[in-house]
Design brief:
This protein has helices at about 35-45, 55-65, 70, 110-125; strands at about 25-35, 80-90, 95-105, 135-145, 150-155. It has about 160 residues and is an alpha+beta fold.
Amino acid sequence: MEFTHFNEQGRARMVDVTDKAATMRTATAAGTVKMAPATAEAIRTGGMTKGDVLAVAQVAGIMAAKRTGELIPMCHSIALTGVDIRFSLGADRVDIWATARCKGETGVEMEALTAVSAAALTIYDMCKALQRDIEITDIRLLEKSGGKSGDFRRGEK
């Protein structure tokens, strides 16, 4: 497989997607924010002074997905048709899933990954007064569909 983000001089470039067909594209990413049980309980009970941690993280993730092309230099600006952020609050962690969708010429993997990252960073920001050693881990693409390269599901070959 060859890299497509380099021109004939070996310099970085944005891939030209002009001739690609617009297709339905979906990507789901996930990540985890690990914390002390007391921090997770404060999130659960609304005990954080900055407000509803997961509500703010959800909005941050959606906003970040919409601005991925401004944050990642070689990403195209994409007209997203949907972004969904989901959380599972455990005894010592928050698991995050983000799904991004569009009908376009290029995929939405980076938008889903950016959404998870921003949601995780927001959780950290809102909880750092209570705990500084929170860990953001395991941010990864779980699956994607659409486009010339076909479908991908983590764990499948």
